[in-house]
Amino acid sequence: MNISPLERRVLAIGTAVVLHAAILGLAAAVHAAAQAAGRVPALPQGPPLLLAAVALVMAHCSLGAIWWARSNWPSYAKTLVAVLATAALWALLIGVLESTDLAETAAAAWAASLATQVVLVGLGAALLELLFAPPGVAERSRFTILFLLLWTAVVGVLLGAGRRLAQALGWNLADVLRWQWFYQLQMIGVSNAALAVSLLVAVRLRREWTVRLLVAGLALFFVGLVPPLAMTAMFKGNLGASFADVAWLLLVQGLFVLATLAPLEAAKELPK
Fold it and tell me: Which end of the chain has less neighbouring CB within 10 Å, N or C?
């Protein structure tokens, strides 16, 4: 059976959409169970649907960074697109949270957390691309004067836009660093990055899909459990949310990332 590249892409995207809907349905079921059971330590204390919405935004930040690493676009162009997409997702996240305003220090702390996540995922995914790339591909990359000029322009635009935005919103670096949950959010960003890169490694393994999904499940379990435990020890239980909230946030986010990466990778491997 011959499957065109367009059909592969449509099939992968359709499967990812169905899986995303199933994950949101799971979140709705957990939400109903939490309301019926009351306070249960294993269930999130916050609204599960809100956690799912936050996890979805964070997942797409990681997916955007993975796209950046795997895209064949010129690096300066895809960097500009990735930064703009992350900024849009940050604004969406602040809107989802509702209790946070763009001009507040909390919004700047969330921006720093997402930036940490995206940078780490992008670097990790780029390193994996070098490891998985066919021999000789990396050597064909060349730097030119035009390349450096374009990159200088992109960096200048991003720095200037960031400075103007901070001034317009009244952000102050010292206030952001002193915010009570700043370092907790940074740890969340690092954990999100570790989760996304782990899942990318799992789906890129040259093994049967049973093995890949097993590795992905182990990554979900360990990265969903170890970071909340480490944060509990580091911050003496002062996470800004319950242990279950952080664990569920990581777990659901990982499911969204896996539900996108697995169909895309599987579609590439369909017989031509």
Answer: N
Residue 121 lies in a domain: yes
- The answer as to whether 186 is a domain residue is yes
pLDDT tens, residue by residue, 107-130: 888 989 999 999 999 999 988 888
This prediction has a pTM of 0.85
* Distance separating alpha carbons of residues 82 and 88, to the nearest angstrom: 10
Integer angstrom CA distances of residue 74 from 124, 149, 154, 169: 19, 13, 12, 32
The whole domain housing 174 covers: 5-134+146-268
Q: Is residue 190 part of a domain?
A: yes
Structure tokens at 223: 């990265």
> Cα(88)–Cα(23) distance, rounded to whole angstroms?
23
Extended beta strands in the chain, E state: none
Phi-psi region of 62 (alpha: psi -120 to 50; beta: other; left: phi over 0): alpha
Give the count of domains, the chain. Answer: 1
CA 11, distance to chain mean position in Å, is: 23
Structure confidence by residue, pLDDT tens digits, 54-94: 999 999 999 999 999 888 888 878 888 888 999 999 989 98
